[in-house]
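This section describes the prediction task in plain terms. A model, or a person checking by hand, is given the sequence of a single protein chain and must write out its three-dimensional structure as a string of tokens. No templates, partner chains or ligands are provided. The sample shown here is typical of the held-out split.
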Amino acid sequence: MPDRRRVLALLLAALVGVVGLLAPAPPDAHAREGARVVDEERTGGRIVDLTVRSPALGRDARVRLLTPDGWESRGPHDRWPVLYLFIGGDGDHETWTREYEVHRKPSLRDTLVVMPEMPLYGFYSDWWNHGDGGPPAVESFHLREVLPLLERHYGAGTRRAAAGESQGGFGALSYAARHPGLFRAVASYSGFVHPLRHPHAVRAGMTHLGLDWRALWGDPVAQRAVWQAHDPYHLAERLRDTRVHLSGGDGRTGVLDPPGTEPDPHIPGLEDPDHPFPHDVISPTETLMGEESRTLATRLERVGVRVSTHFYAGTHSPPYWWRELDRTLPMLLRALDP
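The expected answer:
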């Protein structure tokens, strides 16, 4: 027994050391050399699409901007507050304008809105890649390549807020917690905000898409410290100076689901046999996201984070995220006031 306790103590010490190694530096402390804008396309109105040559991703990637009034005639010292909008697991940088029509919102005419792409199921993380690192380094692309480029050349200021749907909700919360002070306020809509609560869901989703799920953060037991270093629940204390909003549904049919809404496509392994979904759940993913959001909200309140919530009956679908964006935009924009 004494030998076993000694081994456990050594393992715990090693984990603490790994967490220390994983603590991220401020984004501008490691600005990646070589990232540059190689194309700039104005798609009409205030929308500008940038193509960024990204060493972090190992390829060119797109970033959509919704520019504020007066941006075209900006001087070298003009700066605007910035709202980052992070998309879900498909990573499509056009979704916020195509699905949610953020370019039609009058309240955003004085804000630079940044909508970067992400690799499929990229989880807003620099992938562990079995200890080798390297592409896709999603966090580095967003925070150490795109952010400095926008602040140097596109009028982005340092008053920032962020919101995201599904995996993008995780991105907003995880980035804010890993880099305290980066965002003044963050909002998650049906976010995957406590992945260590449901590691089987990460495995199921990535396996369903033909991706190597262990390449993301490793095994949730053997590389638990890597998972914890990205999981907002385990970083809750680092959000004390950030205004947080969490929302999510319960996976049942809600007011924004039209009559006859079909159940979500079946993803093998998404259901935990020891905790089956209630019989009336048609959106298992949303059930998990709602549960994670509630768990995180309780944790944030316990450690003194200023958090608001909106939990409801509903599915994992854009109509709810559109509604939640409208509900939270005033809070996000107030946080950007001087």
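For orientation: The chain has one domain: 2-334.
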